[in-house]
Amino acid sequence: MTDVIALKKYIEDSGMTITYIAEKAGILRETFYNRLKTGDFKASEIAALSKVLNLTRDTRDAIFFANDSE
After folding, report:
1. Is 70 in contact with 63 (CB distance < 8 Å)?
2. CA-based, 20 to 30 A from 45: which of 4, 19, 39, 70?
3. How far is C-alpha 46 from the geometric centre of its chain's CA atoms?
């Protein structure tokens, strides 16, 4: 399950807008906003967002593969 709160915080700290990130990741802005609501990202979107946000593997895993039991 995606840790949407952590993702939004990372986006905020990046200084980039959601629109810019979505565009660079090849995701429609509306789709990106919906994904941020549901936390349901496709593998291709995770890969693209990781590249745009320059996420390390550990950070990517902590955000997109967060364990619900933690």
Report:
1. no
2. 70
3. 6
Query: Tens digit of pLDDT for each residue in 13-24?
Result: 999 999 999 999
pTM: 0.89
Which contacts of 28-36 are long-range, i.e. CB under 8 A and separated by 24 or more positions? 36/4, 36/7, 36/8
Q: From residue 64, how far is each of 10, 46 by CA, in Å?
A: 12, 7
In this structure, which topology does domain 4-64 adopt according to CATH? 434 Repressor (Amino-terminal Domain) (1.10.260)
- The domains of the chain are located at 4-64
- pLDDT tens sequence across 1-43: 899 999 999 999 999 999 999 999 999 999 999 999 999 999 9
